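Continuing from the previous page...

OK, I double-checked the sequence for YdcF family protein against my notes and this is the correct one:
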Amino acid sequence: MMFFWLKKAVSYFLMPLPFSLLLLTVGFIFTAFSRRSRRGWFFLLLGFLTLLLASHKQVGLRLLAPLEAEYPAVPDLTPPNAIPAALARCEFIVVLGGGQSDNPAFPALHSLSSSAFARAVEGARLARALPAARVIVSGPAVAPNESHASRLARAIGSLAIARDRFVKIEDARDTEDEANATRALVGDAPVALVTSAWHMPRAMALFRAAGVNALACPTDFQARPNVDFRWDDWTFDTSGLDRTTMAVHERLGLWWLHLRGRI
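Thanks. Re-ran it with the corrected sequence; updated structure tokens here:
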């Protein structure tokens, strides 16, 4: 448990915004409280440039696009389009968790984070196309609130999916735990794996390592560049920072798994 939270803490400070703020803080301390002002100005400049670069829209797009391009989206499943054969064979639909708000003023679907919302909608779309498939939802609870798996089940159920189709994984803390728990539930049965497109490469690597016969069904695409030139695609804003953060987080996760020999 301690190692899990240590991993979370270290990864948090390696994200672009916290890392930039850390550099700026170190620079301020050196310039204000030390004789090494030159070193302080170096850290201040490095922190500013890191934050500036991470906030540029093109940087975020270029870093995130290769992750999202690895697995294509499932096409429209409405007539006259046929359901792809690989998808039609799936006996389970696995919707990975993605965060929520515990404010009771919101219905289940609108209490989800933007990523979890997209995953829930995609899970419902696939569940309607595969009426015989069970829907596995995952996510632990933060006491005294309901588990994220339960919230996902209520949210997807609100999109006209029968409640008796759901199976909950409520004790998985991360994607690796979700993969192992899914394997224990489904065995060798083929599953449609639903998660954010930028998270899919790491998720698929972990599910395959766990022995799950998974078909990638990505959603929540964030790197969708315009085909024509637009000047605001070359500006700095929080959307660029968000994309850069997603890309750095996933690449660090993949690096860590490779380092541990898990994939």
